[in-house]
Predict the structure.
Amino acid sequence: MNDVAIDGQPIVRARDIEKRFGDLLVLDGIDLELCEGQVISLLGPSGSGKSTLLRCINMLETIDSGEIWYRSELLGFRQRDDRYYPLGEKRKARQRTHFGMVFQQFNLFPHLTALENVCEGLRIVLGQSRAVAAERGRYLLDRVGLAEKADQYPSMLSGGQQQRVAIARALAPKPSVMLFDEPTSALDPELVGEVLDVIRELAESGMTMLIVTHEMNFAREVSDSVALLDHGRIVEFGPPDLVLTDPQSERAKAFVNAMKRK
Ligand SMILES: Nc1ncnc2c1ncn2[C@@H]1O[C@H](COP(=O)(O)OP(=O)(O)O)[C@@H](O)[C@H]1O
Ligand SMILES: [Mg+2]
């Protein structure tokens, strides 16, 4: 946690988001504000819509109604009068540079070294020179504690190390907001800590983050607020100590108790 959030401006604002897959209403009126420097954790049972919400913010999915704003920029659409026109892929790709996303599966390129994985996007998408990209890449690998692994291929790295490379890769283009979707769920238990340490340090450095996680203690420690999702709705929202200690609704109580038993 940090003090920036107290007088921070909303940097991401989701207003009454609905998302369907066919007949299934997956997000059912989500309102969420993420302020600069703030960390919000999203918790909730499997299938409650957590990944879909992150994917909608990052425009990997198109929302059916509502609006998502990055500062004063409407994401994914251009609005004229009362109508919304979807943006083309190029515009969306530009908007997507506000966000860095880290998935459960690290998805590193197996034929590229750790350093090349971090630099690839800088060179291909941002057109940076090899030297400039490499300097940023080495800085970030050092930041995630992997300076000495720069020239190793993913197959030589543990799952925890691969995920730290994926975090460095997501940070490379200097996103304003980091989105984490269960970043430790694919890891052996003994490797979870090193990845959480990196995310914790990011939080302490003032990075604005939305984190989907099942790590209750971690969520409690790093989050300014916790949102509990159920069936596509935010059923509880507030400071972690309140939501995770004394949830109000029956659904939330059941979920929190089940998480504690894990
Ligand atoms: N691309 C998709 N097509 C159809 N249904 C989907 C798709 N993605 C997710 N869903 C469904 O949407 C619901 C929410 O999924 P998801 O956002 O992945 O939940 P969570 O991340 O909370 O586990 C689930 O019922 C899931 O099966
Ligand atoms: Mg998910």
In short: Residues 1-6 have pLDDT under 50 and may be disordered. Residues 21, 26, 44, 46-52 surround adenosine-5'-diphosphate (ligand 1) (CB under 6 Å).
